């Protein structure tokens, strides 16, 4: 009976430790999410991504929670010519 009690007590202390470590990791995550713009690793990775997107002509928005929104617009140029015989516009091949 004594062994069972010791085992149960050690089990309870292990559970308390697990709960404490879970609470600590949650607190660390919350601190990281609050200060994401002060995180050096995030700034290095995001600045490279932002610079590449701006070089390509994209619009970049950085949200307070650290999310990045990159908007890219492509422009297509198509030329048409009026065909008098068919009485319609015909698309010219790209040159």
Automatic annotation (TrEMBL):
Query: Which InterPro entries does the entry mention?
Result: DUF2671
- The protein depicted here goes by the name DUF2671 domain-containing protein
- Protein source organism: Candidatus Sneabacter namystus
Taxonomic lineage from the root: Bacteria, Pseudomonadati, Pseudomonadota, Alphaproteobacteria, Rickettsiales
């Amino acid at each position: 009976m004594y062994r069972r009690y010791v085992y149960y007590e050690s089990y309870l202390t292990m559970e308390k430790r697990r709960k404490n470590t879970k609470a600590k990791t949650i607190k660390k995550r919350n601190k990281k999410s609050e200060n994401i713009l002060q995180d050096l690793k995030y700034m290095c990775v995001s600045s490279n991504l932002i610079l590449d997107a701006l070089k390509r002509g994209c619009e970049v928005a950085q949200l307070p929670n650290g999310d990045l929104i990159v908007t890219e617009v492509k422009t297509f140029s198509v030329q048409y010519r009026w065909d008098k015989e068919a009485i319609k516009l015909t698309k010219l091949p790209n040159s």
